[in-house]
């Protein structure tokens, strides 16, 4: 017989996520003593300390608590999946799914994916989190995220990935740049100009490696983790940038015109993938969303070839995107 309840696990997870017993209680709409008692009982039953209590500063997980958190989230997810299978007919999918998406990709693709997915599966509540590669991997490992949409990079063991699409990186120039009318732009011709770097992992190394692999050094003058900040600086003639993600309109937030052109050199494409932790058994909702994303990208043929960027159908993205990329 089990020595703990799913309710206890729910209280543990909420306390860990909010770093506070009081906040967890408010979130769950229960009394604070109920949460404290459940946690204390669990710790006593298993002779383990899960949290470090900080006076007036909430709580933090112990190493044992961090290990338990992953399994607790997984078990709660499995329990919800089981409940759905029992209560609902086989053709009804419902539940909650936590999905992370690379910060530069999310605004371009996720609004359309969510809109299309909700039409097919109105009973699924998809919660989207934006972050960089490191944040998404940490979230997958801790069980905070069940799936993550990210660009390909060298991942540590324990993660499974599937390719969604392949995109060609491009040079972003101000409209007044002397090379703005060319068919492609050589990295060598830009080496002495000001480079505005999208400074977020793994984009930073991805773009800098393009220069290194061609025997060049980039002259980084500005850097920012914000895609639109980078575009804005380019639009104001502070330099050029290399990107993959490309919004629908070639204008910055403050109305300046920018132009995206292919790179003349042979550079590595950006590969968009969907990732999950290998040790997590996929729930029904996970599998449905996973398969939906594969079909969605295949349906819209979101891939590009050298010097030709595929155009995403406007009917699919309702005017949000012009071409794919990082």
What's the quick description here?
The chain is of the alpha/beta class. The protein contains 11 helices and 14 strands. The strands form 5 sheets. It has a 5-stranded mixed β-sheet with strand order 4-3-5-13-6, with helices on both faces. It has a 3-stranded antiparallel β-sheet with strand order 10-7-12.
Secondary-structure map with pairings?
Blueprint: H1 6-18, H2 21-28, H3 32-46, E1 51-53, E2 59-61, H4 63-87, E3 95-102, H5 106-120, E4 124-131, H6 133-142, E5 147-151, E6 159-167, E7 170-174, H7 187-190, E8 195-198, H8 203-212, E9 220-224, H9 227-235, E10 241-243, E11 246-247, E12 258-262, E13 270-277, H10 284-299, H11 314-317, E14 321-323
Parallel strand pairs: 3-4, 3-5, 8-9
Antiparallel strand pairs: 1-2, 5-13, 6-13, 7-10, 7-12, 11-14
Helix pairs in contact: 1-2, 1-3, 1-4, 2-3
What does the model show?
The protein has 326 residues and is an alpha/beta fold. The chain folds into three domains: 6-65, Winged helix-like DNA-binding domain superfamily/Winged helix DNA-binding domain (Arc Repressor Mutant, subunit A); 88-165 and 270-319, 3-Layer(aba) Sandwich (D-Maltodextrin-Binding Protein, domain 2), CATH 3.40.190.10; 169-262, Periplasmic binding protein-like II (D-Maltodextrin-Binding Protein, domain 2), CATH 3.40.190. Helix content is 40%, strand content 22%. It has eleven helices and 14 strands. The chain has helices spanning 6-18, 21-28, 32-46, 63-87, 106-120, 133-142, 187-190, 203-212, 227-235, 284-299, 314-317, and strands at 51-53, 59-61, 95-102, 124-131, 147-151, 159-167, 170-174, 195-198, 220-224, 241-243, 246-247, 258-262, 270-277, 321-323. The chain has a five-stranded mixed beta sheet with strand order 4-3-5-13-6, sandwiched between helices. Strand 3 (95-102), helix 5 (106-120) and strand 4 (124-131) form a beta-alpha-beta unit. Residues 304-326 have low confidence and may be disordered.
């Amino acid at each position: 017989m089990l020595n703990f309840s799913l309710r206890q696990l729910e209280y543990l997870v909420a306390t860990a996520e909010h770093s506070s017993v009081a906040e967890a209680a408010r979130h769950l709409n229960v009394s604070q003593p109920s949460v404290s008692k459940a946690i204390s009982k669990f710790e006593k039953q298993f002779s383990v300390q899960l949290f470090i209590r900080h006076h007036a500063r909430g709580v933090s997980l112990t190493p044992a608590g961090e290990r338990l958190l992953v399994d607790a989230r997984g078990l709660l997810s499995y329990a919800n999946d089981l409940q759905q299978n029992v209560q609902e007919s086989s053709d009804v999918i419902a539940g909650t799914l936590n999905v992370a998406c690379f910060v530069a990709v999310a605004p371009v693709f996720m609004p359309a994916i969510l809109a299309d997915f909700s039409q097919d599966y109105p009973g699924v509540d998809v919660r989207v989190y934006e972050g960089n590669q490191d944040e998404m991997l940490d979230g997958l490992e801790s069980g905070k995220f069940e799936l993550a949409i990210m660009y390909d990079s060298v991942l540590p063991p324990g993660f499974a990935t599937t390719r969604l699409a392949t995109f060609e990186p491009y040079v972003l120039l101000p409209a007044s740049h002397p090379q703005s009318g060319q068919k492609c732009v050589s990295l060598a011709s830009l080496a002495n100009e000001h480079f505005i770097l999208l400074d977020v992992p793994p984009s930073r190394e991805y773009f800098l490696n393009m220069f290194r692999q061609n025997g060049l050094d980039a002259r980084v003058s500005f850097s920012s983790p914000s895609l639109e900040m980078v575009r804005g600086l380019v639009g104001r003639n502070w330099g050029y940038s290399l990107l993959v993600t490309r919004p629908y309109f070639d204008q910055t937030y403050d109305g300046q015109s920018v132009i995206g052109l292919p790179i003349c050199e042979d550079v590595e494409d950006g590969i968009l993938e969907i990732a999950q932790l290998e040790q997590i058994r996929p729930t029904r909702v996970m599998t449905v969303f996973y398969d939906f994303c594969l079909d969605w990208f295949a349906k819209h043929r979101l891939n590009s070839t050298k010097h030709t960027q595929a155009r995403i159908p406007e009917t699919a993205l309702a005017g949000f995107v012009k071409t794919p990329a990082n």
